[in-house]
Amino acid sequence: xxxxxxxxxxxxxxxxxxxxxxxxxxxxxxxxxxxxxxxxxxxxxxxxxxxxxxxxxxxxxxxxxxxxxxxxxxxxxxxxxxxxxxxxxxxxxxxxxxxxxxxxxxxxxxxxxxxxxxxxxxxxxxxxxxxxxxxxxxxxxxxxxxxxxxxxxxxxxxxxxxxxxxxxxxxxxxxxxxxxxxxxxxxxxxxxxxxxxxxxxxxxxxxxx
Length: 209
Description:
Layout: H1 7-89, H2 96-109, H3 113-116, H4 119-128, H5 143-152, H6 162-170, H7 175-200
Helix pairs in contact: 1-2, 1-7, 2-7, 6-7
């Protein structure tokens, strides 16, 4: 009897082929999954290395600029409020700037992160991730650069008007940020002008220190 007539033999050979095929498919799927996962992780790592520094530089610059503006405005308004409090203690007439400073300070403290950096602010950055990362030298600033830029601006002691200082703080900000901070900055500048005028009036006596 030939092998072709052996029913059990032909069935055993077919089973061997099916088993080998199943093993091969399982190994292929396993290797495909391993290499696919490794490739995905490698791509994520390369993308992070390419974009993270540029993104950090950009975010650091924008965050520092906004934080510096908020800090300068809050410091100036706090000084005006302190001057008004000392004036009340001396039972002298309080200048209108003292009351106005409280109102402007309330408006300033109501400004939050989402208002200065809404989703639209980051949309362009997210869309840019699909392309090549920008070179680090294309406008990315370091802390040294920012300090040099700020030192180039005249300090308040150099008789810079509050309106000019306000414009300096808003320079370089996005349109959304200027819309949020601009009115508050202008109101604060008016308060500073009023406070300075009240200090310069000789009829009000010496300014408490």
